[in-house]
Specification:
Blueprint lengths: L5 H19 L15 H15 L3 H13 L5 H17 L3 H8 L13 H14 L3 H13 L7 H11 L3 H17 L6 H14 L2 H14 L3 H14 L3 H13 L6 H14 L2 H13 L6 H23 L1 H10 L4 H12 L3 H14 L5 H14 L3 H9 L5 H16 L1
Length: about 425
């Protein structure tokens, strides 16, 4: 970030007020107000410096201010006036480190008007950031934020200051606090703030922190690349084939499957799970979108498609019998298998009925898996309210609970 244009205005306002009061103090009429007067020894070079400032001769002004500062016995007010004029000249000549040093005493010397303190605090945050004095940038920037003096860019400045001083945990704490405040006020956290949080999380090598940041990005700025980062991170940690298949379903839903192996692995898992219709659907989608770039990958996909079609044909021929057997079964596993098959053929209402019956009977090998699939089928059928209820009911499997929360997010964004 660069020093903003309003910095000059903030300094100039303060300087104008101070200069007027300081130079008036050399006249006999104001001699009875010693707290706001300057001696002739200091006042003469100050007057010359003010003339130089008005005509834009900042080098000349600084030379005159050096003369004023060389006077050995100066009152606190005289020193204040010198600092203020120096600060203005240094800002104009882009000597920001010197400007910050000159303007900082004004916050505590008692001579700035209360109305000038907010502008001065903001200016000092900007100046110190510009000269890479990140500790002071954080100090003044945080004060400006806490007291309601900051503009929209100040949180970015403070967050970046933490980051640029390599204080990754400080960055994480600041950005999380900022995000929580925004959410509490009903304000959407900025993409910049969330990106900075994600980058700091990556620096801390905390997968939990990274996942949380990505999930916030997906919630508030749902771009495909954020979904992709989040889900590919999950792929690395998923252990079982059934959970992996569920992860592929969400990845396909948000359109982040880009590699040939994503499609073939997804299809193979679906066939093995008893959902050949789903496998056929995903391979046909990959072929249509030219996901398979060469003869080898395309041939593999076509072989897998042929397997899926044969399995689907056998499966569909036996659906009526499967439905009858499921109806007679005392536990819900056959109902689940029937619902899974219907799901793969995109017969979502039939899938909902079978899965609901299986869950009601109980005795399922994986109740959370059935509950999650039910929610997905309900969402696909257009019943968002029922889907959200089903997703909230997924319990007992950390991976599936996480997927259910992400499906809930997807449902709200749909």
């Amino acid at each position: 970030m660069k020093v903003k244009g309003n910095l000059l205005a903030a300094v100039a306002v303060g300087a104008a007020v101070v200069f007027g009061a300081g130079l008036a103090g050399i006249t006999p009429a104001l001699a009875k107000e010693p707290a706001n007067t300057v001696s002739r020894a200091v006042g003469v070079p100050l007057q010359a410096a003010q003339k130089d400032l008005k005509k834009g001769d900042y080098t000349g002004a600084l030379q005159e201010l050096d003369k004023a500062d060389a006077v050995k016995k100066k009152s606190p007010y005289e020193q204040h006036v010198i600092h203020e004029m120096e600060g203005y000249a240094y800002v104009r000549t882009k000597q920001y480190a010197k400007a910050a040093k000159a303007l900082e005493p004004g916050l505590t010397d008692g001579f700035l008007a209360p109305s000038q303190i907010p502008q001065r605090t903001v200016a000092l945050a900007q100046l110190n950031y510009q000269v890479k004095n990140y500790d002071k940038a954080i100090k003044y920037g945080t004060e400006a934020i806490d007291k309601g003096w900051a503009d929209a860019q100040m949180p970015t400045l403070v967050g970046q200051a933490y980051y640029l001083k390599s204080d990754w945990m400080g960055t994480v704490r600041f950005e999380k606090s900022l995000i929580a405040t925004d959410k509490g006020r009903g304000v959407t956290p900025s993409n910049e703030s969330l990106q900075l949080l994600l980058s700091a999380c990556l620096k801390t090598k905390s997968e939990a922190c990274e996942d949380d940041a990505l999930q916030e990005l997906v919630i508030y700025h749902p771009k495909p690349e954020y979904w992709q980062q989040l889900l590919y991170g999950m792929f690395k940690t998923v252990k079982s084939d059934s959970n992996l298949l569920q992860t592929y379903r969400l990845a396909s839903e948000v359109n982040v499957l880009k590699r040939p192996e994503d499609y073939t692995d997804f299809a193979q898992l679906a066939i093995e799970a008893g959902s050949p219709g789903e496998a056929q659907q995903i391979i046909e989608k990959g072929l249509q979108e030219n996901i398979f770039p060469d003869t080898r990958t395309k041939s593999k996909a076509q072989r897998l498609l042929a397997d899926a079609k044969r399995a689907a044909a056998r499966d569909q021929a036996g659906l009526t019998k499967s439905a009858e057997e499921a109806a007679r079964s005392s536990n819900g596993n056959q109902d689940y298998g029937l619902g899974l098959a219907y799901f793969g053929y995109q017969h979502y209402h039939k899938a909902i009925q079978a899965l609901s019956q299986g869950i009601a009977k109980g005795g399922l090998k994986s109740p959370p898996e059935a509950q999650l699939l039910l929610g997905i089928a309900q969402l696909k059928a257009g019943d968002k309210a029922a889907a959200l209820k089903s997703f909230r009911s997924v319990k007992g499997n950390a991976t599936l609970q996480r997927l259910a929360s992400l499906w809930s997010l997807r449902a709200r964004q749909a």
